[in-house]
Amino acid sequence: MSSVIAQSGQEVLGVRSITGPLIIVEGAANVSYDEVVEIRDSQNRMRLGRVLEVGEKMSVVQIFAGSTGLSIDGTRVRFLGDTLHIPVAEEMLGRVFNGLGSPIDGGPQPLTDTYADVNGQPINPTARVYPRDYIQTGISAIDGLNTLLRGQKLPIFSGAGMPHDQLAAQIVRQATLGAPAGEKPSQSEQFAVVFAAMGVKHDVADFFRRSFTMSGALTRVAMFLNLADDPPVERLVTPRAALTLAEYLAYERNMHVLVILTDMTNYCEALR
Questions:
Q1: Could you say which architecture CATH assigns to the domain 3-83?
Q2: pTM score
Q3: What is the distance between the alpha carbons of residues 46 and 65, in angstroms, rounded to a whole number?
Q4: Could you read off the pLDDT of 215-245 as tens digits, one per residue?
Q5: Edge-to-edge strand order for the sheet containing 134-136?
Q6: Is the CATH code 3.40.50.12240 the one for domain 86-271?
Q7: Strands 191-200, 256-262: parallel, antiparallel or unpaired by DSSP?
Q8: Is 237 buried (19+), middle (13-18) or exposed (0-12) by CB count in 10 A?
Q9: For residue 55, what are the contacts with CB-CB under 8 A and spacing of at least 6?
Q10: Is the omega angle on the peptide bond into residue 117 within 30 degrees of 0, that is, cis?
């Protein structure tokens, strides 16, 4: 049976049930959908989660790091009263983060006072500026036949064994702002790439990091890596974190941003 031990912060001791990455919590009031939750086991080890469903007397919490080591009576759940926010800053370019936006390259946390909600709202299509300028990828089949205009989405479908990872890396290395024939791209326009990989193996993640570092492209790239052995639940947050940073760079720092997400199949499997 759950019992509230601290009304401030909505901390609850004990949960009703634990099933896979889901726990059911009773006794907390005024819980909101998508609210961030701190879960601590009997050893006081902390992991994060979010509210997936809210009922009249209970809440369903989805744990990012899985429920291994949690017990029904010894688990403490603290509702933070806010949705998931990540730090966003221009200094995140050239850095590598996990799927939740925490650094995994040995560097410090981004030094910023700006934290953005990962649960952003889509822009009304009728409010978008009509796309006229393009991004040059250096891939002739894309630039010549399926030109990527600024503000557009371009899906790339691949089969098993096809070099889609190499293609994604090549686009990151070569992508530049396009310009009309006979003109040079404006030097005053800043260009950045936000790259997110979901459910990739360690060797693939190492390939991306080496490829961007050796080519010098990493200086303008912010990488979000969710590895195959990371919690599948974290995979659902990874593209949201990447898009949150991209929106900040575009709307707050006036940069042109190319977002590349791979592999969407792993993301879709995590939704099941």
A1: Beta Barrel (2.40)
A2: 0.87
A3: 10
A4: 999 999 999 999 999 988 889 999 999 999 9
A5: 148-149, 134-136, 176-177
A6: yes
A7: parallel
A8: buried
A9: none
A10: no
